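pasting for ref
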Amino acid sequence: MAEKIVKYQGDTTLRELWANGPQVSSGVSRLLDPTGRSFSAVMWQQGKPPLDSELNLTQQIQNHLRAEMLRALLPSGILQMDVQTGITSPVNCIRIINATAAVSGWLARLNGANRTDDASDIIFPQAPYTGTRYDLAFAEFWFEEVAPAASPEVDSEDVYRYGGVNSGTLANDIQDPIAGDETTRRLQFRWRLRTVADVDFTTYPEGVNHTARVKAQGGNASETNYSFAASSTDSHLFIAGDGTAAACSALSCATGYVYALALFKVKRRNQSAYSAENPEGAPAYGAANTTPRQLYHNVIVSQDIETIFYQTSVRDRLHPEMDSMAAVLLEAMSGLRGINLELEKWKKQRLQQGTVVIYNKFVIDGGVISAVPGTRNLQISRTGTFNAAAASKMYIDGKIVVIPDEQTSVAAVPPNAGATSQTYYAYVDYDNTQQRYRVFVDQTVPEGKLKLYRIVVPAGDQAANLDACTFYNERRIEAAYTCFYTTQPFALVNIPGFWMPDANYDVQLTVEDASDMGRVGELIVYDKAYNGFKVRSTGAADAIRVRWTLINPNA
């Protein structure tokens, strides 16, 4: 818990306790732990001086009791946040306004990051040069000691505005000008808005616990080797560290823990030129734009982001049978979301918009992926047995594509020297270099590509063949095409703003683009829920970009 201080340096200057008395460090004599002890007060005794450790324990007890009360009422998450997209200065940016986070019983105002006002800019890495990528935005929090200016120790002397390490600094007035010396130090609750590129949201929906990509940084200038794990008691909170002195040193914090909250999942377009084979290509902002959607690779718009933060409320912890008046009083006690947030929520529930793409790709005949015997190479065949005269037939990008049986130069599955299994996917895409459709292998399937097989490589598999690997057939097969579909293409829409009160809302659909506008067919909305719905197409077109508009007459 944050109220248990594990490592606090204090002033290391040696001073006499009294004239000609022993010399001792004038830092903190010892660190006392208020957690798990149910202390309610520290009682002074006559004739005995109060100790520095006991004075510190007094405020630690009060902090602990307050934090425990807030933890009981308020799960960790975002209390309020307004989001702005389409930011062009700076580029690669999402702007958040009026953001307040609840973090394990502590509150943080996420103001002023990378700005001089009270908004905060989350700045992402540059877009990829090919394909698409998903980036993570998250906030991390920790407690760090603050020393007076010109302190001789290696420590932090910055007093950050709102605690944000990228929000500018305020005057360090810790040293008293009358005493002319250091008497106390401070503990600051600090935070940082961070981004990580190329995160696996399929396996890790909240992104933060993708341990291979996301590492804690804490008070350091760069990230550490500590990764985040989900809290066992606070479902949307992630924690790095173990509360030891070693973790305090590595993470540059006072408690041995760094906390994190997921914020956004962001799809990135690429920097290569737009074409039919590269529909996610886009120019840089300010350059000539001939793309159908008039998008830029370095401007993040609303359709690119998915809000993955948990919007917390004191209501989340109310017992279902609690008296209604008590519920109203508890809600009033929070006082943090306010009437303005509720009005904004009402507006966004009543009318929301976004876009979704329905991809219509499938195998008509063949497309069987298997191993070339005695190698780690793959082959594609019509029947599962290589036949140089045979070919597979597929429907891709609004046309029928033929791929001959092939054993050489298809793709290889890498060996796995690690302690856990690795997953790869075989999929079909257009190769601009070879000017043809062919099979690719990667750990993810780019959006809108035709997935064929999932291949699981067990831990320690470094054999010269693929005998230990497992192949899972994940083809969509429409053997009866062009007569009828056995399944119809669809897209899932996760409502990115405030969720609807229920499923009683209307959806208006507008087709913005498709591989063949004349073959879109009918668009049908189904499986409506308060947090999303599905849209399917009855036509033969591919890559159907649909703008959806929610209308809730009862909101």
